[in-house]
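[Discussion] Sanity-checking designs against the backbone

I'm trying to build intuition for which residues belong where. Below is a structure token string of 622 positions. I'd appreciate it if someone posts a full sequence so I can compare it with mine line by line.
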């Protein structure tokens, strides 16, 4: 790497600290051990800009897991912004790691975190800037192994022709097994095909090259056939059974610039027992596994002492459901009262009883409060199995207002299955009641004016949910319902409305439920200029339209198609452990408006015959 040239570039680009490295707690290792062994070089890549990638807890955990190994050095790289990409190309410089400024093409393994479908083109940007062929079949023995993990691996087919291997499920344990096999094969100098074959024998590792997709006469996905007899029939999601003993982040790398979540994030538990029917995370992270309160406090001590942060985020899918939440919050606040360390609860259920906790939190610093009713009417909340009522929401916001908050965010979705205009207008009515709740309070209690943000995203059907068979509503219908809601919210005191850009939601749905043909669409869109698609202002609609047309496909056939129950699914070779039979049952219950109980109140049988194995309960309803 030409350091002088790189430094001259960094003086000219926006936010150069995205690309400098050298942060506090950045891992540094000798590349060769005392015994002469050259360490495996692993480039942990996040396909979005630095301030987003550095906020991702999963990447921080894997960074620590890999660097705890004596045989591996894991370094970081993030997608460049437009100005940095242009500068690298104009100066013939490769994308590089932050730790040692090593070109990514020189690493043994390039590993991507797949969190969001709209970041897929950023993967191609990083590969091309590294000089690595975009298609796995074009990579020779000398090329790095390109792998990926994360929730999007639930349906890996849209990137199947790009990735050499994918890791399905919790990474804390499987990555060590992966690196054990990789190291053995590297030492024995085995060819890549044999390496991939051995990697495919690890539970949770998928090697797309060992499978071939077939399609029916209508152009729909028909089946996936094995091309290697040793490849597994199903790729079973890896689950860390004892989260309390799992490796965590270690000493957090502290950025020089502000990042999206610039605080200590402590994962207090993983999974969810609620069963919201639209929520992929609620199904793919089952069963619930909690960290002991003592472990969380110990990690709090370690994280604060090595970073200097003054805010702790108690992170999970639903922080208020942690069994020790009412003990943990005051303990942390009391423990760090003199340092004025604040606590945020980023994911609150609106039926969580947290009044006392909120009052304690606001004595230090008011952090954001977000509630997610998801739907505007009780009928639709029952359809999606939200399990909360209007009274729950109004009680929660009342408690927040009494405790000194005047700013809350309310999250909803537009386009949920069975939604009507009445349901859409119900969102506005609910916001109106929140406003009334605030302004009906005595002024000396409520303080400043209300800041209530109503956010309405577009429903995206996701694999391994009861709504995986449902179509997304059309763009025109999304825009109509957004306009209906916007007009209904006009004049509601203290309420602001924001909605998600529907064009990106269409593509998200297409790639969430798409098949292997979308790999070529993705590459075509990238070659047409698609970059950083998750940034609405930079979304290149013509690039995507041309890419689908060039490959004889449409967004609608993936995003807007109702898939028949029992029809082939592009992701059916992936085993998320929650059974398809249970998902079908939940789909039926949705249309009946039947609520399924929280599984802490009794097993519902989501794992089928494997319930006793994964959650220690009986087979429930199956």
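Best answer:
Here's mine. Compare freely.
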């Amino acid at each position: 790497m030409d350091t002088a040239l790189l430094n001259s570039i960094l003086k000219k680009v926006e936010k150069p600290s995205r690309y400098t490295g050298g942060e506090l707690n950045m891992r540094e290792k000798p590349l060769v051990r005392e015994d002469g062994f050259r360490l495996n070089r692993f480039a942990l890549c996040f396909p979005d800009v630095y301030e987003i990638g550095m906020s991702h807890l999963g990447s921080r955990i894997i960074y620590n897991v890999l660097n705890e190994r004596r045989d591996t050095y894991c370094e970081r790289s993030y997608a460049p912004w437009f100005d940095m990409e242009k500068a690298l190309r104009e100066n013939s410089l490769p994308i590089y790691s932050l730790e040692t400024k090593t070109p990514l093409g020189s690493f043994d393994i390039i590993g991507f975190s797949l969190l969001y479908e709209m970041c897929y083109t950023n993967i191609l940007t990083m590969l091309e800037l590294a000089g690595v062929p975009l298609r796995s079949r074009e990579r020779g023995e000398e090329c790095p192994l390109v792998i990926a993990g994360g929730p999007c691996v639930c349906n890996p087919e849209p990137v199947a022709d790009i990735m050499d291997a994918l890791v399905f499920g919790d990474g804390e344990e499987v990555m060590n097994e992966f690196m054990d096999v990789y190291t053995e094969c590297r030492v024995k100098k085995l060819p890549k095909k044999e390496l991939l074959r051995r990697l495919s024998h690890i539970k949770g590792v998928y090697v797309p090259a060992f499978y071939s997709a077939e399609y029916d006469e209508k152009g729909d996905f028909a089946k996936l056939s094995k091309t290697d007899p040793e490849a597994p029939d199903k790729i079973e999601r890896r689950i860390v059974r004892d989260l309390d003993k799992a490796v965590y982040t270690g000493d957090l790398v502290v950025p020089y610039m502000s990042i999206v979540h610039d605080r200590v994030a402590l994962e207090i538990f993983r999974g969810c027992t609620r069963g919201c029917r639209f929520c992929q995370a609620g199904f793919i992270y089952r069963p619930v596994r909690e960290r002991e309160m003592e472990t969380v406090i110990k990690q709090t001590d370690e994280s604060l002492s090595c970073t200097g942060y003054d805010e702790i985020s108690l992170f999970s899918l639903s922080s208020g459901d942690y069994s020790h939440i009412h003990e943990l919050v005051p303990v942390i606040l009391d423990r760090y009262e003199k340092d004025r360390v604040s606590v945020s609860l980023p994911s609150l259920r609106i039926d969580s009883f947290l009044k006392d906790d909120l009052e304690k939190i606001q004595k230090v610093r008011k952090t954001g409060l977000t509630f997610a009713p998801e739907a505007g009417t009780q009928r639709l909340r029952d359809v999606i199995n939200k399990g909360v009522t209007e009274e729950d929401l109004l009680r929660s916001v009342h408690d927040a207002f009494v405790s000194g908050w005047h700013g809350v965010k309310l999250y909803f979705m537009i386009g949920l299955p069975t939604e009507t205009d009445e349901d859409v207008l119900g969102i506005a009515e609910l916001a109106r009641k929140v406003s009334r709740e605030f302004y009906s309070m005595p002024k000396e209690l409520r303080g400043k004016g209300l800041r209530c943000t109503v956010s309405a995203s577009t429903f995206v059907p996701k694999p391994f949910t009861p709504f995986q068979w449902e179509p997304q509503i059309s763009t025109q219908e999304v825009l109509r319902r957004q306009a209906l809601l916007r007009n209904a919210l006009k004049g509601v005191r203290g309420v602001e409305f924001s909605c998600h850009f529907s064009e990106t939601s269409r593509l998200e749905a297409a790639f969430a439920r798409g098949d292997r043909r979308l790999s070529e669409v993705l590459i075509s869109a990238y070659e047409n200029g698609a970059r950083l698609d998750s940034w609405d202002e930079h979304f290149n609609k013509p690039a995507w339209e041309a890419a689908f047309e060039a490959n004889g496909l449409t967004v609608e056939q993936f995003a807007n198609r109702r898939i028949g129950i029992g029809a082939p699914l592009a992701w059916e070779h992936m085993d998320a452990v929650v059974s398809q039979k249970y998902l079908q049952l939940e789909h039926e219950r949705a249309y009946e408006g039947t609520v399924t109980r929280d599984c802490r109140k009794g097993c519902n049988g989501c794992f089928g015959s494997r319930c006793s194995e994964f959650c220690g309960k009986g087979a429930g309803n199956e």
